[in-house]
Write a structure and sequence with these properties.
The structure is a homodimer. Chain A contains twelve helices and twelve strands. By secondary structure, the first copy, chain A, is α/β, with parallel strands linked by helices. Chain A has three domains: 44 residues, 434 Repressor (Amino-terminal Domain) (Orthogonal Bundle); 125 residues, Rossmann fold (3-Layer(aba) Sandwich); 158 residues, Rossmann fold (3-Layer(aba) Sandwich), CATH 3.40.50.2300. In chain A, the strands form two sheets. A six-stranded parallel β-sheet of chain A has the order 2-1-3-4-5-11. A six-stranded mixed β-sheet of chain A has the order 7-6-8-9-10-12, sandwiched between helices. At the A-B interface, helix 4, helix 5, strand 2, helix 6 and helix 11 of A face helix 4, helix 5, strand 2, helix 6 and helix 11 of B. Chain A binds a DNA duplex through helix 2 and helix 4.
DNA sequence: CACGTCGATGTAATCGATTCCACGACCTCG
DNA sequence: CGAGGTCGTGGAATCGATTACATCGACGTG
């Protein structure tokens, strides 16, 4: 593959001049410029990004470590991250942790070795020393969706508290009293936070939340299935199951179906994270939607601010409840899907913060 | 960040010795080795992959350019690719083309500039000169799922011909005669191939396939919706709509639902590519499943063979029909989901190649 | 005892870019 | 007319690794 030397020889100038043309430095004669450009064209020359990075000590690359690529929420996040990064002149390398701390660390290490300019992380566990050290050592970093408490790193996330309260209000209004939750790992912020929000909302409505109604999942479908089976085996099974992510909701649906039960007649179902397919499941699933695209874009902007020396900002955006039929309410006619939120029904006006 | 020089100084040896220890070269004294290792530990040294790549002319990185990350099929493919690559000691950088040739070329160019060791591509269009040139120039390359005809590059894909025939047999058996297809872009091999397979199967059953029943989609949900609306507007709408990928099936479902029609009573639906959610849609969707994981792994193996000087092999694996209720047959009880194929029903034995 | 061999180590070239510094040509202004 | 400036250019150092080659001491052997 042709190098800058070849181009210089072909154009009859020095490598310095070639480099100047390529980085359009002002003081290059028109004559030299055209000769260099012609040589570049003739040789099909492309600058070696590896060499350039070594010299300039920047890769114009962002690392993104997410918990699970197979989760549509993260897929969408990854897409918006890449889009915004590209707009700002950066590439993105994605590392998929599959909810495994060891894999997460593997990817973080690889990315650090590659000297990425900055790191976007949605931590799988509460305290990877590797990540904490990297942050302290000055690696530009931003947490997205999940974060590690006690580390001085900006966090871009969405706050589901209000939406969870809306959900409980909705369920309460439909007459449900025994509500259960399939929680995510307590080691993740989203895992514990969603349970807390749920517990708080339940308390507001004077509803009990016995331990038996808090199932421990791991954000994967299989755990949703297992926990739901446990719920169904109880002497007094819950009337509603709220899954803390969309994959566990899928597992819950598997479990309910395996028993030959119907949603919502026999048991109601709701999920955190909205996905397009929820509109077409049997029945359509009530869910809490995050502004995923905006989250990804904000995270990239924060990280790039940090990298380029501007003060980065933490961002918290609200999630919102999208009511469908899986908890018992009659269906609304759905309007065409708007951009940011996948095809969905607006919560009925009466329900937004209608209570306390 | 500490460099190899710092380690050498700390350990009181030359950089050459440090390098030898790190790449465990045989002739290093036990004494030197321990001192170097101690220094590495003390400084928290990590080798700079950029510098190493520049010198060795290899990055131990594979590029993967896929057509659409938001498509679960490609997400799963990407995951299995990364997994296998990791097992073989390579990293993967994913480029998402969003079905746009310009974006595809952008990613290919970026990856080439980074001097990745090899490229896995699922081309968005039939003939990106950039890709063709790179292949001719000797860049190790393997096509996955889709390919560009006339280029001497191994192809790893699945053959859906038999499964499509099974599908048509199934539909014919259920009494359907007016079958329509939402095709993918003719510029993609999978786009045209699936239509051809469908056309051939229809011919076998003596069924006509009028042009009005061939809708032109682009593998995105929106096109599925649009095409389906067109079908429903026909004086004689089809009895079955077969979508050439899962996203267009989603769009088709949107369109059918918007008209207040029911699947399969008013119109039947089938899709190419199976995804977990198809089990829980209303109704569960009959689909053709590809062995996605195996495809990804085989592609990586072929590419790494090529990179490391072994002769690479093209691989073709069969897809298979998974019958559910969206075409009218009564449901079976579903067994627990096996590994490779997402939760699914086996086609009834009588249906496999039952005809002609 | 001298010489060849081998193991351990260091010196320096190299990969492909960027960029500081120096230099010559030419211009401008006092 | 000469001092000082600007412009275009090239030479060479540099980034952080790897590795060919040289060196040197110890040791075995004829």
């Amino acid at each position: 593959m042709a190098s800058i030397k070849d181009v210089a020889a072909e154009a009859g100038v020095s490598v310095a001049t070639v480099s100047r043309v390529l980085n359009d430095h002002p003081s290059v004669s028109e004559d030299a410029r055209t000769r260099v450009l012609a040589a570049v064209e003739a040789l099909g020359y492309r600058p070696n990004a590896v060499a350039r990075s070594l010299r300039t000590d920047q890769t114009r690359t962002l690392g993104l470590v997410i918990s699970d690529v197979l989760n549509p929420y993260f897929t969408e996040l990854a897409r918006s991250v890449e889009e915004e990064a590209r707009a700002l002149g950066y590439s993105v390398i994605i590392g998929n942790a599959d909810e495994r701390p060891d894999l997460q660390d593997h990817h973080v290490r690889t990315l650090l070795d590659r000297r990425i300019d900055g790191l976007l992380v949605s931590p799988t566990d509460g305290g990877s020393p590797l990540i904490v050290d990297a942050a302290r050592a000055g690696t530009p970093m931003v947490f997205v969706d999940r974060w590690i408490p006690g580390v001085d790193v900006p966090v871009v996330r969405s706050d589901g508290r209000a939406a969870v309260r809306d959900l409980v209000a909705h369920l309460h209004g439909l007459g449900h009293r025994r509500l259960a939750i399939i929680a995510g790992p307590a080691a993740t912020t989203t895992g514990s936070e969603r349970v807390e929000a749920f517990r708080a909302a339940m308390a507001e409505y004077g509803l009990p939340l016995p331990d038996a109604y808090i199932g421990q999942g791991d954000f994967q479908a299989e755990s949703g299935r297992r926990v739901t089976e446990g719920f169904l085996d109880l002497a007094e099974p819950p009337e509603v199951v709220f899954a803390a992510d969309n994959l566990m909701a899928l597992g819950a649906l598997d479990a309910v179906r395996a028993r030959g039960l119907r949603v919502p007649q026999d048991i109601a179902l709701a999920a955190f994270d909205d996905i397009r397919w929820f509109v077409h499941t049997d029945p359509p699933i009530t869910a809490i939607a995050q502004p995923t695209g905006e989250l990804g874009r904000a995270a990239v902007r924060a990280l790039v601010d940090r990298i380029e020396g501007r003060p980065p900002q933490s961002v918290t955006l609200p999630a919102r409840l999208v009511v469908r039929r899986s908890c018992g309410e009659p269906a609304h006619r759905e309007p065409p899907a708007p951009e940011e939120f996948p095809a969905s029904v607006e919560p009925s006006p009466a329900m937004n913060r209608s209570q306390t």
